[in-house]
Amino acid sequence: xxxxxFLADFYTDTIRGGAEVVNDIxxxxxxxxxxxxxQLETHxxxxxxxxxxxxxxxxxxxxxxxxEEALKYLKTLKYVIFEHDHKYLKTRDPSKFPDYMAPPxxxxxxxxxxxxxxxxxxxxxxxxxxxxxxxxxxxxxLGCSLWSDQELATLRKYTTAKKNAAxxxxxxxxxxxxxxxxxVFCDExxxxxxxxxxxxxxxxxxxxxxxxxxxxxxxxxxSFCRLVVEARMLGCKLYTNGNNGCTSESWFGQYxxxxxxxxxxxxxxxxxxxxxxxxxxxxAKHTLKSPQKKSNITVILNSYRRxxxxxxxxAAIENQTVQPHQIWLWVNAHEDNKDWxxxxxxxxxxxxxxxxxxxxxxxxxxxxxDTEYVAVFDDDTIPGKKWxxxxxxxxxxxxxxxxxxxxxxxxxRAMQYQPERAGWPRKNKETMRVDYVGxxxxxxxxxxxxxxxxxxxxxxxxxxxxxxxxxxxxGGIQTYCPPHPPEQNELHGSLYGYELGVDSKATxxxxxxxxxxxxxxxxxxxxxxxxxxxxxxxxx
Length: 540
What we know:
Radius of gyration: 26 Å
Helix content: 25-40%
CATH architecture of the largest domain: Alpha-Beta Complex
Distance between the termini: 61 Å
CATH superfamily of the largest domain: Spore Coat Polysaccharide Biosynthesis Protein SpsA, Chain A
Number of helices: 17
């Protein structure tokens, strides 16, 4: 039986806090997978106790009470960290700092986190904040907390509880739980409320379940916040702030009630398997910056009026630090590519059409991909060698449609209001939310279903606008432009945009489609999206 040493300040037989409960569930899950767990309490051990198990893997649940010499020795061992809050900060609260970025003087235990085989965080924002403060690449986002079978059974029991019209407020003397702020909110909104409190899990859940809503305003950034998810499992409305890590997960708005309970149950098993992988030295499956040789990406290139660019595009894609699964070619019929020979370019599949399907055709072809991600490129777009790596890293924190050229609409029309730019035209150093992207797209294949929920207002233009609009409307998916720092061209989605994209063959410059008509069509696409409920960055 494989032995693992689990370090924690306390276990549930002494204190029944959130961290202690989750640690117990993790330990039970590891035991069920055949591990022998040696549980040590940090305030009872020293260097000699750690040395006794120096050949084993350690899981560090908490280390606050570990003495300085033992903590120093721990850094020389093999261990993973299961992070419950923000112990890498003196304040343990990043919400006090702009964009959660603490001054260097506030960072502690940097070496401990950096030396870990893996650092497990519990939500996207938790992982992002830890990574940006510590500057490490061994972080794994679990994306969900852990619930026991007994807890899930209790939650299922009360999903059909009859509700009153009042709002539940957690009665707590702990200021960070925001009881006072919840009271002020309910008073201002004239919402009736009741206090709920119990040390017994079922009693607490039964109280919460009978309320129409939960008001909860934590005063620190919660790494996950099980309470908010439990309220959603029980069908309660939520009145809260932005300090809940769980709301940064894309699944949060998709599930509720019994469906959400089923989801977190399945996620628990996946997360315990992630810990097992890390303990056995296979953390590369899950870390934020995993070295990958063959990825789950299908690339779709386009041949229309610039088939001569394909060789350079294929070479750039084959030179990516993250290699795609396959490279496909979508051909729109035109005199400029008639009888062009693609056989020596190494495409895995070719859609050789005898019709010009214009902008939307390649996205229809993408429906046939059997990979998690799809990368679509315009025929004037050649990416830097780390473009896919950049996109995958960005997806961890900002899961959405990504692109090499981002646009932020400044008014309701394309022709009169010049959009703000991002990506290769602007060289943004940080990820930016934008209204739509073009030139190069990177997205999950499953999101293509949203593109076809509404028939485009025109087939002649605006696939970029329509995709971002429908994905947001039907999937809650935003659009982002990954970092394009000026000093790191290898991260860029397009290296020669001004050289290759502004010739006479560009649609916006094409004599066959007058300039005024082109932008008039885009005005129509923007108006259609705004009328349909498109929520733009500038709230147009």
